[in-house]
Amino acid sequence: MTTGRRSDARTSASTEAARRVLDLLAADAPAEAVAAQPARSRADGAGPEDLSWIEETTQVALSVRRVLDQYRRREAELVALFDTAGDLARLRDLDAVLRAIVRRARTLLGSDVAYLTLNDPAARDTFMRVTEGSVSAAFQQLRLGMGEGLGGLVAQTARPYASTDYHSDRRYRHTGTIDDGVAEEGLRGILGVPLRLGEEVIGVLFAADRSPREFTPDAIALLASLADHAAVAIDSARRLEATRSALTRLEAANATARAHSEALHQASDAHDRLSKLVLRGAGTDEVAAEIAALLGGGVAVHDTDGSELARVGTGPVTPSAASLAASHTEGRAVHADGVWTCAVLAGAEPLGGIVLTGRGDLPEADRRLFERSALVTAMLLLVRRSVAETEDRVRGELLDDLLAGPASSAHWDGGSLTLRARRLGLDLTRPHAVAVLDCEPALRSRLAAENARTARRLGGLAGTRHGHAVLLAPCDRPGALAHGLATDLTRILGTPVTVGAAGPGTGPDEHAARHAEARRCLTALHALGRTGEGADLADLGFIGVLLGDRADIGAYVARVLGPVLAYDTERGTELVRTLHAYYDQGSSLSRAKDALHVHVNTVVQRLDRVAQLLGPDWNTPASALELHLALRLHHLTRDGTGAPPPGR
Question: pLDDT at position 45, please?
Fold first, then answer.
């Protein structure tokens, strides 16, 4: 009976406690309130057996509470996923889809930051595409190689990975770039799940906190479910975007095809009209007038050297070198400085240029018409060049006979050559210079063509001899001619052109010798490292004196030593004598003053005066050699004895 009464008492106390626990559970009271029931029963005087039973009941109630909480959380997550799927299904723009995915991931997992990377198959990495909650620019621009860091491992293996504290987690392959970006963002706990389409991984979805966080299996499963929905939405948005893009391209292609067909018809008609002009022998003026009428603007046609061949409806205008070069490179007309320019080409060879004025805008059809006009102009210029080349062959044969000289044949007839030249409009009794031109072998044919063009402009003869282009032109300053030719032809050909010149000669029998002298000058320019320059032997200083067969020694001495000679003549000084002694004594001041029987200060003062007259670099090795040679030539030509000057 005693046992029965105790059992009834325990049952009464336990039943009351169990009722309170069930009431709290039904009222959805906090878990802390349920867990406090054993303490309350203890305070109410419950015995040990009752307390044990009450504690066991409380634990069961808490377990039920956790299960119910888990069910409610799972239900909320499923509702959120369902809502997410609906939201994503309504979105059509890929960027909007990506932003919605990342925003929902951050909300569902309650994380500080959420972000998404997309795989780049070409670069074999995954790159940051969208972030939510991020504040670091470096983090927002990260690229992760396959297998690098947590995200690179997810992208490579297609499996979810989580880290409670990424910085200290050695399971992942850390790199400086990734660690720096993560550290700048301040991330610690990171979870990443793959975005999969079937077997293909297209990216990674992340949730991360700025404090250590243990991601539960439920959290991982939730983010993975969201990633599955996201992958489908991304694929749908991509396909829709691709469809829209394809439709846009198709519409554009149709419009282009219609415009192209119309442009072809117009271009064909214009080409026929221009071609007929060329075939019936029209000149550049008529062709330019037709182009101007077709395009409704002013037209100017120029040769490769910039000379104007025709101009209609516009003032003088010259195509810029930059515009011609751009048109040549692109193969199209270019617009610059308010005018349109199109290079006139025969293959890759420039024949000139066309300039169109008065047309600020040029639709594609008109632009193609302008470019086709350049082709027709090229046909016209090629015909003109063919005629010119025939004439050049006649002129070249005359040049060959002139450069062969009297020594080439016992029947050489200078009078006959003079008559032949006169028929071609040349007067060989005038002073003429001979120039020999050279450039890299690959461009020598172009150099010969430009040389022939120059000969026609100067009223001379052009040809090729011993592998070099040769020019015979009216000129009494061969050095200036050579310099101008080298400068102009280097610019036109885009490669160094070296020119040696000689002259002037005033009769047909002199040009062979001048040609030989010009060749020696060209050889000397190459030997002196002056490739790309133009000069005659007089411009080469003492080298020219040594190479020339008719050197003007007096002119050379005057050029090198003239200011010192004039100073001695005007003031009765002995600067020339001092220079003789200085150089003959090995540039020694002390030995020079002994040879001159003067004080060393006098020698110094005289040499200072020489420096004032000849320039501060008068005693450099190259200048000293010139001076020493000029001094000796001056002495030899002064008295013809070869004896040293007084005092030596």
Answer: 67
